[in-house]
Structure formats: C-alpha cells, structure tokens
Design brief:
Layout (H helix, E strand, L loop, with lengths): L6 E8 L7 E3 L5 E3 L2 H13 L6 E7 L2 H4 L6 E8 L6 E8 L3
Antiparallel strand pairs: 1-2, 1-3, 1-4, 5-6
C-alpha cells in the first residue's frame, strides 16, 4: 500500500428487496491521502444511490498493520544490547524539517 494512504473507502451493494443482504462492490477499495478527502468523496458516491442500495465507510489506515507510514513520518529502529542479548524496538517518529 502506498505510504501516502491515510484512509480507505469500502462500498457495499445491498439488495433492494432484502436490505440485510449486501456484497462488496466489484472494485478495489479506494485510497485517499486523508480521512476528510475520503469522507467528501463518500458523500458524493452515496448520493448517486439515493435509494440506499449502496452503503460505504471511510476508515483510517493503521500504519502498524499495513507497514505504511503517513507523509512526514519515518520509522526508527533502536537496538539495545549486543549479540544474542540484543533487543530491537521500532518507533514511528515525525521527521524533522
């Protein structure tokens, strides 16, 4: 996933007859640089389905799960100890300008 991705939109298509039966829209989740951009786009996407047959959500991307980082951040590794006793920790920190 692109490190600049901060939010993802996922859309579901729901049956007009059985509203509780929903399936993912046949497309990959759309990625955005911010949650605000995703929410604005989601509003437009849902407006194109006024009968409620499409539902969707925007969610923040968890960088610790995707191994991606937001713009302006970097990962720093700190190793304590030597040899077999060494322990390495990973930290996400804001880059200095």
């Amino acid at each position: 996933m692109d490190p600049a991705t901060a939010a993802v939109m996922v859309l579901l298509q729901c049956s007009p007859v059985e509203g509780s039966v929903c399936k993912p829209v046949d497309m990959a989740p759309t990625m955005y640089a911010s949650l605000d951009l995703c929410m604005a786009s989601l509003k437009d996407r849902l407006a194109s389905a006024p009968n409620g047959e499409t539902v969707g959500r925007c969610r923040l991307v968890d960088a610790t799960v995707t191994d991606g980082l937001p713009v302006g951040y970097t990962r720093v590794f700190v190793t304590r100890g030597r040899g077999d006793d060494a322990i390495t920790s990973s930290y996400v920190v804001q880059r200095q300008r």
